Amino acid sequence: MATIARIDIDETGPVRAVQGFLKTLLARGGVDAVLTPAHLVPAGTVMPTLISDPEALERADPLSPAFPLNAARLVSRLTRGSTSGRHVAAVLRPCEIRAFIELVKLNQGGLDNVLLIGLDCPGAMTNADFRVFGLEGDPLERTREFLRAVAGGESRPGGRSLAGACRVCEHPAPEGADLILGLHGADLDRAIPVLGNTARGEGVLTRLGLPDAPGAPGRREALDALTARNTAARDAMFEATAARTASLAGLAEYLSGCVNCYNCRVACPVCYCKECVFLTDVFDYKPDQYLGWARKRGAIKLPADTVFFHLTRLAHMSTACVGCGQCSNACPNDVPVMELFRTVAERTQGAFGYQPGRSPDEAPPMTVFREDEFSEMTGEAH
Questions:
Q1: By residue range, what is the domain housing residue 41?
Q2: What is the pLDDT of residue 205?
Q3: Do 190 and 282 fall into the same domain?
Q4: What is the DSSP letter of 282?
Q5: Does 15 reside within a domain?
Q6: Strands across the sheet containing 46-51
Q7: Lowest mean pLDDT among 68-82, 237-251, 364-378
Q8: Could you tell me if residue 124 is inside a domain?
């Protein structure tokens, strides 16, 4: 059984309690800095922030419903090729941990010098909704209001819907973390269970000297109920998206709002290519080509190649998609990119029996040869 300690919560609330935990971690946990969501100014927006000064942790708000970007690539920058011997703790959502593990498997980061602290994910708002909800009044009290609403089963905490990706996420628990803050099922007016999920995590808990907890009562039941609800919503989303994109004409209509801004590519945590073909001159057509296509078809949508861009991204990324939804969060025209990517990813990942971010020891599809793979296509029976 995993080692379980607790973070006691007083009248100042759960965010202050987690800040105190992170300060203790800096003092006794063997880390040199903490990467955590924090308010850039006392009542400002929340962004991932690398903090080495304990006093600066007064701005930390890792429980906030803000999710401006998936921090996996930031952790990869802090760990790739690191030989300094310095260690960083990173407070991450489950989808961020899974994305980071995918990057590690692609040689874009390392696990040796990072302590992964995962949150049971309460969900997040879109950037637009958080700007309305989270930046009014005391931001830490707003976070507390959000957590209470989620714990109470409200479908619109703070009067705002959770982001679409969060409503269909079947992985609310950070299975790949060293330490887990067990928010689901916890009484967030009293204490947060802290689970040592790996040998490294258990060693850190021992050094921190936190009070023991008898367990995490109600956590598994809360996680199971949330997973079941989100899985049902996910399956309905898959069905609706597949119906809308079943033909090339349907796919073109689905993506008709795309303006080739490539925000979704930039926001994707596992899209790591140093040079993208769409940022080269491959698609810099001559004027006569555009006019020729327009004469042939009668009309041509500009910018061109929007469907091809997304098909190329799907071919590259559907096996690695972790469903964080940042592609949709970054889209200026509300194209439902997440829904499409998740629908296709479900099929490609299922075909390979692969779940991205499940384990650093599990090789990504098509990087290893398996003799018995896709025997129904090769005609070889094993």
A1: 4-227
A2: 94
A3: no
A4: G
A5: yes
A6: 4-8, 191-196, 179-181, 114-119, 88-92, 33-39, 46-51
A7: 364-378
A8: yes
* C-beta separation of 334 from 345 below 8 A: no
Whether residue 43 lies inside any domain: the answer is yes
Decide if pLDDT at 2 tops 70.
Answer: no
Integer-rounded Cα radius of gyration of the chain: 22
Q: CB of 37 within 8 A of CB of 61? A: yes
Q: What pLDDT is attached to residue 378?
A: 53
Same-domain check for residues 222 and 161: yes
Run of H or E including 196:
strand 191-196
Same domain, 149 and 259: no
Helix, coil or strand: residue 115: strand
178 and 201 within one domain:
yes
Residue 115: which of 83, 86, 84 has the closest Cα? 86
| Domains in the chain, number | 2
- Cβ atoms of 180 and 195 within 8 Å: the answer is yes
- Out of 200, 227, 254, pick the residue that ends a domain: 227
Q: From start to end of the chain, where are the E strands? A: 4-8, 33-39, 46-51, 88-92, 114-119, 179-181, 191-196
Closest by alpha carbon to 360, among 171, 111, 173, 121?
111
pLDDT one-digit tens code per residue, 94-153: 999 999 999 999 999 999 999 999 999 999 999 989 988 877 778 889 999 999 999 888
Give the per-residue pLDDT at 1: 44
Shared domain check, 16 and 43: yes
Q: What is the pTM of this model?
A: 0.92
Between 301 and 118, residue with greater pLDDT: 118
Q: Are residues 150 and 276 in the same domain?
A: no
| Calpha distance 95→333 (Å, rounded) | 24
Please tell me the distance from the alpha carbon of residue 29 to that of residue 52, in angstroms, as a whole number: 13
Q: Give residue 375's pLDDT.
A: 59
In terms of pLDDT, which residue wins out, 239 or 272?
A: 239
- Residue 375 inside a domain? The answer is no
Pairing assessment for the beta strands 191-196 and 179-181 based on DSSP bridges? antiparallel
Q: Say how many residues make up the chain.
A: 382
